[in-house]
Write a structure and sequence with these properties.
- By secondary structure, the protein is of the alpha/beta class.
- It has 2 domains: 179 residues, 3-Layer(aba) Sandwich (Rossmann fold); 115 residues, Beta-Lactamase.
- It is built from 11 helices and 11 strands.
- The strands form 2 sheets. Strands 2-3-1-4-5-6 form a 6-stranded mixed beta sheet. Strands 8-7-11-10-9 form a 5-stranded antiparallel beta sheet, with helices on both faces.
- Helix 8 packs across helix 11.
- The two termini are 23 Å apart.
């Protein structure tokens, strides 16, 4: 299955860096210390992601204004794209939200006018630069604000992303969610987990790929998403520990919340996946283990 993605956004927001880290295996720490030079031309590349072949068009930020004015360039960049991903960073949004909102509206209208039928997806990048104890609350407010300012006929999907090591899962999850709409492996497993957990309360599950990055996330409606980014950091630290403390943990404590935790390897059912993790405020470990048993049974 082939999926075509187009990355657009203003200069130096991280479009090419995301491509280098996710699809080309570059070390994010190195790229943070030694940033890439701004792209000056459209770059076409092909990558493998799970069961999908990704055709990625990385457009230069310096030419964004021209792209939004020139129909020929729009057809070259957007035609037959499954998704147009508009990437903007937190500092730029705070300083120039009006320009960002205007860009997104124009992309939305171009997509409708020329019948490209691509999904418009927003990545608000560099959230590690937000100084807030409860980053989740702040981002929930930002998300509502963006869709209110856009005032479009539909709310656009917004993913909050970062390449900071403690928050690296955010970008993998955002891209997996974007590509998952077109990936049979991801959509099938996500659907299976959703069916198993649809009636559960205050429960979340993650699935990792072979490289231990979280690529699937399923959350119950009443889960407190304000702790989500702290949870990413906690999981990253536990799974990165020399003794892999995550697999040995039955409880995770975040602020005043206690989450029962279980994990299991599911690579025997699909080698593109590695582990599944369930965390819950309401279910105890034995009940979560029963969920894993049901999942394995339905997957076999």
């Amino acid at each position: 299955m082939t999926t075509k993605l187009t990355f657009i956004g203003k200069p130096e927001v991280g479009k090419t860096t995301i491509k280098k880290v996710i699809f080309e295996g570059e070390d994010p720490n190195k790229l943070i210390l030694f940033p890439l030079e701004a792209s000056v031309r459209i770059d076409y590349s092909v990558h493998e992601f799970m069961d999908s072949k990704i055709v990625l068009i990385d457009t230069p930020g310096q030419s964004l204004s021209d792209l939004l004015e020139d129909e020929e360039k729009q057809r070259r960049s957007f035609e037959n794209a499954n998704a147009i991903v508009y990437i903007f960073d937190y500092p730029t949004y705070i300083e120039n939200s009006e320009y960002i909102i205007n860009d997104i509206r124009r992309v939305y209208n171009i997509n409708k006018k020329l019948d490209f039928d691509a999904k418009i997806i927003l990545f608000l990048h560099k959230i590690d630069l937000i100084i807030a104890k409860k980053i989740g609350f702040k981002l929930a407010i930002v998300k509502k604000q963006i869709n209110k300012l856009l005032s479009l006929p539909e709310d656009l999907p917004i993913h909050f992303t970062s390449l900071h090591p403690n928050l690296i899962y955010t970008i993998y999850n955002a891209l997996s969610d974007t590509i998952g709409n077109f990936s049979e492996d991801i959509s099938n497993l996500k659907g299976l987990i959703s069916n198993l957990t649809k009636d559960l309360s205050k429960t979340i599950s993650f699935v990792s790929n072979k490289e231990d990055n979280l690529i699937i996330q399923v959350i119950s409606d009443d889960f407190d998403t304000s702790i989500l980014f702290s949870l990413y950091e906690k999981i990253y630290k536990l799974s990165s520990s020399p003794d892999d403390l995550l697999s040995k943990s039955n409880l995770i404590t975040l602020d005043s919340k206690i989450l029962h935790t279980v994990s299991a390897n599911i690579s025997t059912f699909n080698t593109n996946f590695k582990n599944i993790i369930f965390l819950s405020e309401t279910l105890e470990s034995n009940e979560l283990n029963n969920l894993i048993g049901e999942l394995k049974e339905k997957s076999s």
